[in-house]
Amino acid sequence: VDGNAIEVAIQYNEGFNEYVFTFANSINTIDGGSHLTGFRTALTRLNEAFEGAGQECLARSQGLRAAMANG
Q1: Which candidate, 4, 12, 5, places its Cα nearest to that of 43?
Q2: Residues 5, 69: Cα–Cα separation, whole Å
Q3: Rounded to 10 degrees, what is the CA torsion of 70, 67, 52, 63?
Q4: Distance CA 68, CA 7 (A)
Q5: pLDDT values of the chain reduced to their tens digit, one per residue, 71 residues
Q6: Which residues contact 21 (CB under 8 A, 6 or more apart)?
Q7: How many whole angstroms separate alpha carbon 6 and alpha carbon 1?
Q8: I need a labelling partner for 15 at 20 to 30 A (CA). Which of 29, 63, 64, 65 fits?
């Protein structure tokens, strides 16, 4: 993004629960903030691009494990 490198690792598992931990500058942002909003928006757009169905995108976030780093 504008010359910044972003690393993303994504893995699916069989779980249904959501556990979200967000950090900005090594500080836990318990409310998520713009980092989480941006990730969820990008994930939805990616799913819509590949599957073309908004309803399916909601189900695809179940069992998702992801880690991001701004390098």
Answers
A1: 12
A2: 8
A3: -170
A4: 6
A5: 577 787 888 888 888 777 888 888 888 888 888 878 888 888 778 777 777 655 555 556 677 888 877 76
A6: 28
A7: 8
A8: 29
Residue recorded with tokens 């629960």: 17
| pLDDT for res 27 | 85
Do the Cβ atoms of 37 and 43 come closer than 8 Å? no
Task: Give the distance from CA 20 to its chain's centroid.
Answer: 10
- Nearest one of 40, 33, 32, 38 to 57, comparing CA atoms: 40
Q: Helix, strand or coil for residue 32?
A: coil
Q: What is the pLDDT of residue 49?
A: 76
Q: Tokens standing for 27? A: 């500080």
Residues, the chain: 71
